[in-house]
Amino acid sequence: MTIEIRVPPLPESVTDATLVAWHKKVGDGVSRDESLADLETDKVVLEVPAPANGTLLEIKVTDGATVTAGDLLAVLEEGDAPAAQITKETPKGRAVPDPKIRESEGTSEAAHKLSPSVRRLLDEHDLDATIVVGTGKDGRITKSDVMSYLKSHSDENVAPGDPTPDYSLDDGGPQRTEERVPMTRLRARIADRMVEAQQSSAMLTTFNEVDLTEVINLRTRYKESFAKEHGVKLGFMSFFAKAAVDALKKFPAVNASVEDKDIVYHNYFDIGVAVSSDRGLMVPVVRDVDLLSFAGVESAIAALGEKARDGSISMEDLTGGTFTITNGGIFGSMLSTPILNPPQSAILGMHAILKRPIAINDEVVVRPMMYLALTYDHRIIDGKEAVQFLVSIKQSLEDPSRLLLQV
Fold first, then answer.
1. Which of 37, 89, 345, 381 is the most buried (most CB within 10 A)?
2. Which of 138, 215, 202, 263 is nearest to 393 (CA)?
3. Helix (H, G, I), strand (E, B) or coil at 372
4. Residues with a known catalytic role
């Protein structure tokens, strides 16, 4: 019996997707729930699983095509998969298990742990997942694992007698070349949203600075016991998220959004945390931060960050935030003006922590300082509110006991 494989329902607000890559070719045997292809939307990569065991009979859509929900992708002949050879030869002459018989060898579970981005990288370099050691959660293979493997085996990639790259100069100077590549759907969507934010809101940025001496002392004092007790590191983001929630409660407009002529005030605190991934900037959302402990915040951020980097993040993880925090400091940024994440009305920018001389009680001392930036929609947030919001965060971080006592 033949089975039609169609584009699954797409997330809300997503109208189409791009078929990034097929993992099988016509005639290949497949197992039920094995990923056949990857579909890239504006925000996430979706996998198309096999509905049953069988043989891929026909592929209707080629790589790079744009598809919509319900479009016919392929035809599967249901039944037992055809027998496969036990091994295949790689370009380097190493015998590795054939991917088609991973199921019978008990390695299909490892294959199913591969994210779309990792699977594409393995396919590009003709690598078998069983020869790469995974360092992710539950042994999951990450992109960095594949890159580390490739780097460590780079010398094996050049066989004796192979030509070496020619870096010689022609006509006394280097060759001038260009490369034109289309934007990924995610990068194009980011570009659209940045322009949308500029055109649909009255953005203004205000700044302050914070002395992080007390926060750093707390982290130093309790980081080992915190990690032992909760199984997660105590970072700066939980302090900033908790300080932000405390300030948002005092200034509800900063936690609001504009819809047509209405201001929507949110009585919950879903904080987006900007994460840089290989596919671009993503803003996964930590729900109900006001109800979470410091450990709960750190665990949620770590889990979402890993999903963003390995390509397994879902649309639900990326929607519905009421306020965003972005940390350019991890890249060395000293100061910046972050752009709003529509329809939110404000975004907090963290920056590098640098020791600087400051005056305290008429004495010059050296303290670990960070500049803070709050970009806000001036249509609904007044300058006074924005300044007071940053002052509230500054006070909470310079005296973290405020966060515990809620004063």
1. 345
2. 215
3. strand
4. 378, 382
In angstroms, the CA 7 to CA 369 distance is 51
E strand spans, 42-149: 45-49, 54-59, 66-67, 72-78, 87-89, 95-97
| Amino acid in the structure at residue 207 | F
Instruction: Record the pTM.
Output: 0.64
Task: Report the pLDDT averaged over residues 370-387.
Answer: 96
17-22 sheet: strands from edge to edge? 45-49, 35-40, 17-22, 66-67
CB neighbour burial string for 79-110, b if at least 16 within 10 angstroms, e if fewer: eebeeeeeeeeeeeeeebbebbbbbeeebbeb
Instruction: State how far the Cα of 70 lies from the Cα of 359, in Å rounded to an integer.
Output: 65
Q: Residue 93, Cα to own-chain centre: how many angstroms?
A: 36
Report d(CA 309, CA 274) in Å as an integer: 12
Question: Tens digits of per-residue pLDDT, 34-59?
Answer: 889 888 887 677 888 899 899 998 89
Residue 22 to residue 48: CA distance in whole angstroms: 9
Give the H or E element holding residue 213.
Answer: helix 213-230
Q: Are 289 and 241 in contact (CB under 8 A)?
A: yes
φ and ψ at residue 70, rounded to 5 degrees: 90, -10
Each residue's pLDDT tens digit, 65-113: 888 888 999 999 888 755 443 334 444 433 444 444 444 344 444 444 5
Q: What is the pLDDT of residues 6-43, one digit of tens each?
A: 988 877 667 788 888 898 889 889 888 888 988 888 76
